[in-house]
Amino acid sequence: MSSEIAPKKSLNAVVKQIGSWTAISRVAGFVRDLVFAHFLGAGAAADAFLVAFKLPNLFRRLTAEGALTNVFLPVYSAMRAEKGEARALVFVSEVQTALLLGLTVLVLLLEYFLPFIMIGLAPGFADTPERLETAIALGAITLPYLPMISLVALWAALSNAHDDFTGGAAAPVILNLCLIGAAIMIPVYQEFSGEAGLLIVMPLAIGVLLAGIGQMSLLQIRMRKRRINPGLFSFRLSAEARRMWASFLPAALGAGALQINLLVDTILASLLNIGAISWLYYADRIAQLPLGIIGIALGTALLPRLSALEAAGKPDGVAAEISNGFKTASLFILPATAALIVIAEPVLSGLFLSGAFTQNDAYLSSLALIAYGVGLPAFVGTKILQPAFYAAGQAKLVLKISLVSVLINLCLSLLLMQRLGHAGLALATSLSFWIIFIWQAALLRRQKKLDFTAGLFMVKALMASLVMAAGLIGIRMYLTEIPSFSEILGPRLQLVLLVVGGLILYGGTAVILRIAPKLR
User: Is the same domain home to 198 and 341?
Assistant: First the structure.
């Protein structure tokens, strides 16, 4: 006999909790990128580390923000409702054992074939042997982070199912803090080791491993506090565990469409000028700020709720939850999109212009940021819609859509990079995600799990965003026309002025249109 295990917190409360921790993580990530830009700029050493970190970071995105959570939570929610919590925790132990053993074998294989893998990830590195050798050396150290973060993702999903979102949301903070400390240690390492080549970034690789240890410790503490710690090993696979793993690959490819498209960007960018990988990285880091705080928070909060509704046989509640998600998202994502498009260069100059990061780097990164900004609403919209498919056990459908988008992204990338360079790669990623979003929305509408109750609210949010965008253009033109005033302020104060002006314009318009959130 099944029983519904209803969430104790409202969607907005959960989004606020996850979003708060994600905001802290993004601020820490911003500080991390400031340190990266100052010490490394957008040169060969930065390119080498970013490629070396690509594989473990890809798995971090797939597991912590995608596939593993998407396939695990619906099955766990159903087992918990139908067979009780004790049996559900045995299932967790089975998944945990298979995950750890499988990824350990995978890491060993990756380590053995690492030189070939690095050539595949960055074929352009073949023309710069030092970049390639550095990426291989760093990758050998960062790869063990892969099973660590995957276990963290599984434990975070388990905690989320028990209405505890703190551990999973706070874990990225640890990664950013460890990388900040490691980046600061680069000059110290350089002085004591005498290293003068690209391997000066070795502390960053070590920082990745320390972050994995810290993240695992945090999640273990959270689970023990909730008394939901599963057994360490279980070498049998129940029917539920086999079913979950059978759906993992389709879910991984489906949920990882954005990461696969970004991986395509990195591979093709390695064929362009030195620095192209780094320009895309800095642009992506800014675009990931609203995506992480709102998009990932909404997706994380929606999945256990929609899974519980499906397990309880209440699909009629899905449309209402998705509608609430779109209202929350539009309030923050539409103005963020407008801002990224109209003030991309001031943002990058104000944040990163220091040390090895030049004005030219800021300009070239801003081109990619504008292109990513075009796709931001689609990135977030997809994060909101995908949980509905996973909760209903339709991972293969998501896979089908995502594979088409990856193919379209590849074709568009090869076409657009010829004329627009690295910015063309970013634009191709954005356009491919608009295709995913529209396709998924049409399917959910046909299944009667998507309605237009949030439409008027979203139109008002768009109007307020356009008013803000017009104001930002005006402020920027004013600063540009008065060079002396611009020089006195400097790039950082100019950015502060733009941000404050944008907030006032958007907030005032939102109040007039009656869409501003109530302060409590």
Answer: yes
